[in-house]
Amino acid sequence: MHIAPARVVTQPSDQSGKTSRLDRSSRGWSSRLVARLAIGVALATLGTTSFAAPIATVDRNGSLVSVEAYAPNIVRVTIATDRGQVDAPPGDGPNAKPDAAGWTHRSDAGADVFTSSALSLSVDAKPWPKAPSQMERYFAPSLPPVSVTIRKPDGSMLTQMTGWEMAPHTVNGEKTFRVGASFASPADEHYYGLGQNQEGKLDLRGRTIDCRHNYDAPAGETVCVPFMVTNKGYGIVWDNPSSTVMSPGLHSATHWQSEVGERVSFFVIAGATTDEIYAGYATLTGTTPLPPKAAFGLIQSKARYETEKELLDVANGYRSRGLPLDIMVLDWFYWSRMGQLDIDRNYFPDPKGMNDKLKSMGMHSIISVWPRFEKESRYFDLLSTKGWLLKDKDGNVVDGLPIRSDRAGALLDSTNPDARHWFWDRIRDNIASQGFDWFWLDETEPDLVPDGSFYSIGSGDRYHNVFPLLHTMSVADGSAKDRPTMRNLILSRAAYLGAQRNGGLFWSSDIKSTWEALHRQVPAGLGFTASGMAYWGSDIGGWQWPNGPKATRPVLLDPAGATAMAPDYADYPELFTRWFGYSVFTPTLRIHGQRPATAIWQYGTAAEPVLANFLKLRYSLMPYIYSLGRHTYESNAPMMRALFMDFPNDPNVADMGDEYMFGPAFLVAPVTEQGKTSRQVYLPAGAEWYDYWTNQRFTGGQTVTANAPIDKIPLFVRAGSIIPMGVQVPSTATAQALESIRVYPGADANFALYDDDGVTNDYRTKGGRKAVVRWDDKTRRLTASGKLPTGQDAASLVQIVSAK
């Protein structure tokens, strides 16, 4: 068989950094071609010689394939028939500079092979196309075929792209293509991530995922983060912001297909562990900042506090009861009109004074700011005239939704940098000036669906998923500019590639207040954190008005005295308590909901002491949790970890979405069924485990029955764990001494204990205070690398847990 010779063209490195889409696309095509051909001749002479250029493009009978390195374990593949599309940089999300250091390239009759210390990528040669048969004239693809094989350094397979597609169609009046690629899928490959899916499953294998932001998804809002991690040592970042359908492992193939595009573009990130893959994701799209310490404490919210007095009464209620609380949240309709970006002084006469009172109690505040502007609001005409609102095909401002009877308000076009800057300036001057610390950017899907409409950068269909990245950038960049010493925090309802770098705390949207919704939260959160987004939580108790089926088992908490729901929802205090206990072991702990009352004493006299004990446990664990936050900043590894991350050699956990690790120590198994007082818990193989409540020790690789009375959540600690426990404090604004350092023997252990001021950005430069605490299991001795962050002596705090 005649093999077409490989034609190679390359592009030298741009040492000035990543250029804009406009800059790259406007370069002269002819000068690019001359440079590429010249370097191509040099490469043909040099053979396997290393080269510094991050891009090499090979021609496969008319299909152009660009290979671009970003690190030894990160490579980008772009395929198109148009050279301008192949040369163009990635879309929004990835923000790293190409870096081909350590990569080599060789070309022969069989393939073009690109090699680093971490992986090898070959663009396989293809035979010269022959004249089509009669059947092929009807059914053969028009695109010249391309296959790309990616291997580990030892030659074993990571993945293989087996084909690509570009099918012409018209979307929103634009002639474009439906683009996609297929990959081989071994029978034992499992897939995780792609953002938030609330369908109740962790493993994506065999499913079809509609990867688009969709507030109205039947099971609960979907959020598209097109980053998928497998159990085979790699992840794929799909570089296309339009709606994408993804079918991992379906009929022995994994298929990506995006609604709008003119090329296929994706990154492969290799890693011996999942944490290496997440570190690669951070290299490609940005580091996850360390949130303010208050973000790890209790965040108290409600839809909505109607007056300044109501909000302060709740804050005082926590303090008068001796309960810890860090943040009070002011949700929507505090304004005089949507889009005024003001605070209604009839109900909040002194917002600055209100925030001063919260600060005097050691609390912070968050306020909800929406991207919607009613026609009658003070800024609508300005924004419309400047073209800073979402528009229809005729250039008219899109006002309201045709669904959900949600008819008022136009969407800020946050794809426009001038609109983003203006938005932050109004937030700074009108709201931050009143003492509010951080901002809740709601409706970041956005809620006004952009399909069929137009942003400043193009069709809302083409850029369907990119809004949350760019919208949260408005506050992230603005806060960095105007409050450089203050640590940023943003509550956000949706995410996209790179959104983690903006300081987002994400949550699962306006979910129902039912047991089914709680059950779905566990795998939904694990899938989200598996997508490179470490900080996720849910509205504890659900957001929708409490309304669920009648309890089928005896209610575990007497609802007497509860004011959080109607009297006919007798098991709601039980549901809330189970939800709260679970949320103690998620990255954020936030009460919110559309109900008459939400504070923890408002679920009945029986529930209050149980909730208080769970809350105090959260604050006891603050030294452990905050240290995990520092580790996430340094590594991008999530603290809320599906079991496949830490136990890759145990096939029993590949599809386990109802248990997870919280940091290196805790195995958490939430109870999500009404009336249940026990549940089956699988303890992963390769470790020994302690029941946190009883200290009973178990061997891994077995399923045990865990007792789960209403005041306990099934909780196990891995042998060889160190857990620093803090004294009780009213909030993280109070310096917290260590009460003990618990050691669970059975293996050597180390833990990096970290602390800092909790509010400034000094952690980025000065590094805070850190000590590595080590446990030698053979000598049963605990040592520290230096003084503990609290200044205490480690040896005096040790509590060695005795197995029962």
Overall mean pLDDT: 92
Query: What is the number of helical segments per DSSP (H or I, 4+ residues)?
Result: 15
Alpha carbon gap, first and last residue: 71 Å
Model regions low in confidence, pLDDT < 50 over at least 5 residues: 1-7, 9-54
| Percent helix range | 10-25%
Instruction: Choose one word for the global shape.
Output: globular
Structural class: alpha+beta
Order of the strands making up the biggest sheet: 5-6-7-8-9-10-16-15-12
Q: What is the makeup of the main sheet? A: 9 strands, antiparallel
**What is the number of strand segments?**
43
Measured on Cα atoms, how large is the radius of gyration? Answer: 27 Å
Q: In what range is the share of β-strand residues?
A: 25-35%
